[in-house]
Specification:
Rossmann fold, 9 helices, globular, two-stranded antiparallel ribbon, binds adenosine-5'-diphosphate, single chain, about 35% helix, 9-stranded mixed beta sheet
Length: about 260
């Protein structure tokens, strides 16, 4: 892998790389809903799922059976979720849900490079990239390939076990020269469905503290919402217009997006 092999992607104004130190903290959920919300606000958005071994984006958007097309110029055509949101995922390239992609580092690098250069993204305001957890081949490839106008959004849950890995993500971004846009604390508190009281299931406040300690922007917190699991499984993002009015998480997330685009 050549270091500093940066691609110039002039037709993509801003790139947001969504990262996490650990799996299961809601990184893909955040990436998908960030892309959906930006598209709903009128931006032209691309969503690139580079989680080669566990692509969740097709399921989270209800696009499981979609396949990518080819444009007359031979470029790969992304799948359209809506007029403003185009999507590419390794999930669109594999035939069966239980297929496993077994690729070594250089193959992943080349695949990600193709996703960035051989896809007909056209003009985008934002490319949101859902990167696998940790600091392995895929985030490294994304960060090395994208030059300028790229920022990382780091997702964590509040407990110490997750936070220690956030520090690694911050150090990783500093080493590869990607500025950290900010940190989101997901699964921050749960409103008891019976008495309405807040329960800090995974503690709370850790995301804000780590942001302050490391001099990064704290983007805000998203509560646990039981409905969110069903929405994820059913491919109905919580930031979709039809669903976002009722949800506390959606209101919290909307405020986070205000900060991201400010
Ligand atoms: P990751 O990409 O970090 O592995 P996912 O986005 O796949 O995590 O989320 C893991 C699970 O947690 C999914 O079932 C998702 O629906 C659920 N989830 C994510 N955020 C929340 C939340 N705030 N409240 C409830 N469930 C959530």
């Amino acid at each position: 892998m050549t270091e500093n092999e940066n691609l110039k992607l002039d037709n993509i104004k801003k790139r947001l790389i969504v990262m996490s130190g650990k799996g299961g903290v809601g990184k893909s959920t955040v990436a998908v809903n960030l892309a959906v919300e930006l598209a709903e606000r009128g931006f032209k958005v691309g969503l690139l799922d580079v989680d080669v071994h566990g692509p969740s984006v097709p399921k989270l958007l209800g696009l499981e059976n979609q396949k990518v097309g080819t444009s007359p110029s031979g470029m790969v055509k992304p799948v359209f979720y809506s007029e403003n949101l185009k999507v590419i995922s390794v999930g669109f390239l594999i035939d069966r849900e239980d297929s496993a992609v077994i690729w070594r580092g250089p193959m992943k690098y080349n695949a990600i490079k193709q996703f960035l250069t051989d896809v007909d993204w056209e003009n985008l305001d934002y490319l949101v990239i859902d990167s696998p957890p940790g600091t392995g081949d895929e985030p490294l490839a994304v960060c090395q390939l994208l030059s300028g106008n790229s920022e990382a959004v780091i997702v964590t849950t509040p407990q110490d076990l997750a936070l220690s890995d956030v520090l690694k993500s911050i150090t990783f971004c500093e080493k590869v020269g990607i500025p950290v846009k900010g940190i989101i604390e997901n699964m921050s508190g749960l409103e008891c469905p019976h008495c309405g009281k807040n329960i800090d299931l995974f503690k709370s406040g850790g995301g804000r503290k780590i942001s302050e300690d490391r001099g990064k922007t704290y983007l805000g917190e998203i509560p646990i919402e039981m409905d969110m699991v069903h929405r994820g499984d059913d491919g109905r993002p919580f930031m979709k217009k039809s669903s976002k009015d009722k949800s506390k998480a959606a209101k919290a997330f909307s405020a986070i997006v205000d900060v991201i685009i400010s």
